[in-house]
Predict the 3D structure of the following.
Amino acid sequence: MIIGACTLKLTIFESNSLKDKRHVIKGIIGKLQSRFNISIAEIDLNDSWQSSVLGFACVTNDTHHANQIISNVMNFIDGDSRVEIVNYNIEIL
């Protein structure tokens, strides 16, 4: 069993309140869960209205497949004009 895990620090543009931030983050999380079948949650900076840290993981039987899923998720998030990836950390276990 191979576990691919990633944490992403995001900057959220045009967010003027926690309500705006949560609207953006929940939308991204919902799309990612349904499209890529990953486990994902906001794991840090819950009270900051322009920053967020997301953590996600996938379970597979192939290291290449885990890398591919993580890469696809990051490309999807990077394509969203509402957020920018500031930092990330990938672990394959």
Remarks:
- The domain at 2-92 is CATH 3.30.70.1120 (Alpha-Beta Plaits).
- The chain has two helices and four strands.
- The two ends are 9 Å apart (CA to CA).
